[in-house]
Structures are given as structure tokens and as C-alpha cells.
Amino acid sequence: xxxxxxxxxxxxxxxxxxxxxxxxxxxxxxxxxxxxxxxxxxxxxxxxxxxxxxxxxxxxxxxxxxxxxxxxxxxxxxxxxxxxxxxxxxxxxxxxxxxxxxxxxxxxxxxxxxxxxxxxxxxxxxxxxxxxxxxxxxxxxxxxxxxxxxxxxxxxxxxxxxxxxxxxxxxxxxxxxxxxxxxxxxxxxxxxxxxxxxxx
Length: 200
Ligand SMILES: Cc1cn([C@H]2C[C@H](O)[C@@H](COP(=O)(O)OP(=O)(O)OP(=O)(O)O)O2)c(=O)[nH]c1=O
What we know:
The protein is of the alpha/beta class. It is 32% helix and 26% strand. Strands 1, 2, 3, 4, 5, 6 and 7 form a seven-stranded mixed beta sheet that branches. α3 (94-104) crosses α4 (141-150). The longest helix has 19 residues, at 46-64. The protein starts with 7 loop residues before the first strand and ends in a 6-residue tail after the last helix. Thymidine-5'-triphosphate (TTP) is lined by residues 13-15, 17-18, 34, 57, 77-79, 81, 90, 111, 156-158, 160-163, 166, 180-182.
């Protein structure tokens, strides 16, 4: 019997989207919310930001584990939206959500998600990222206001949710869809395989 299959996965996240996405792997996992500091110095490249924050989220949970809980691989993840080199995180309120949508509509932007896996037993880490190009249709001011008012984008990077009503304002994507929703599953599966966890 492969001992590898006995390893647990801990998702270091408060995000219901990530929980839902990881559940599609059909392997058992546990969720432990991670409250890592999410500030980064100015001037960092998008991929550097998301890999650092994904790593921090996984590390916080790794360091909180009792020694008896260590037979696990801890997964952390972070998503940002980047338009013309400007990093957009989550909007503070409806007004900022509308402002973000105004800057994203009628053009393309890139969504970056970092993924970190930490071996709870050895502390070995692996961090990587994916980027996806998203094109949004041209929106009227009334449509921007209506979407912002829906509240759907308030806890999402870039103030929209491609998996929700936001699907109606996205005209196309290039790259991994799941990366936009917050967890690039094909990347995660490759990383987990490196830690001895096989999905297929
Ligand atoms: C662009 C986009 C982002 N998002 C989400 C993914 C992330 O959950 C969120 C970006 O915030 P993150 O800080 O990456 O994650 P989080 O705070 O939701 O969860 P945690 O740090 O505890 O893991 O935006 C969507 O759900 N749909 C989208 O279309």
C-alpha cells in the first residue's frame, strides 16, 4: 500500500470558493483559516506578490500545528488582479468596487494566483503561480453601478466574480479558469503529486 495516499491535505484558507474548488479533487481535506499579514513592499512583481502571500498563508498554519497533526500537506493560495501594472486586491466598499470595474471594463487584465504547498513533517515548501488573461466587455455607468450594488464583487480581487453574475461581463479568458476563481487545480494537482499525493 502506498503510504502517500494517507497524507492529509490542509487548506489554509477562509475562502468558500477555494474550499469548493479543492473538493472537486475528491480527496479528503481539512480547512484551517489562515490569518497571515497580506502587506507587501511597493514595486514587487505580481507573481512575486502572490507567491509570497500564498507561502505566508501556508506557513502560518504550518507553524500552528501540534506535532501530532503534522502528517499533512498545507496548501495556501492568493489571487490578485493586475491591469497595466496596477495591482487590484479586494475593494473596501461599493464605491471602490465601481471604480475598479470602471478601470477593467472594455479591455483585458491579468489574474495571478500563487499556490504554496508545505510538507507538515519536513517543512519542505513548493511555491508556484499561474496567470490568466481576462477580457471584460464595455459597460455603461448604469451597468457598473448595478453590478457593484449586487455586492458580489466585494470580497473578490478586482471586484468581480467570474463564477457568478460577473460571468455576464466577461467576454473571454486565456488560461486556467480556476486560476481566476482562486485555485488553479491543474497546477495544484501537479504540486501535490510532488508531495506524494495523487489524485488520478
Ligand atoms: C477575479 C476573481 C477573484 N475571486 C476571489 C478569489 C479569492 O478568494 C479572492 C481574492 O482574495 P484572496 O486574498 O486571494 O483570498 P481570500 O481572502 O478570499 O481567502 P484566503 O486568503 O483565506 O484564502 O477573490 C473570485 O472568486 N472570482 C473572481 O473572478
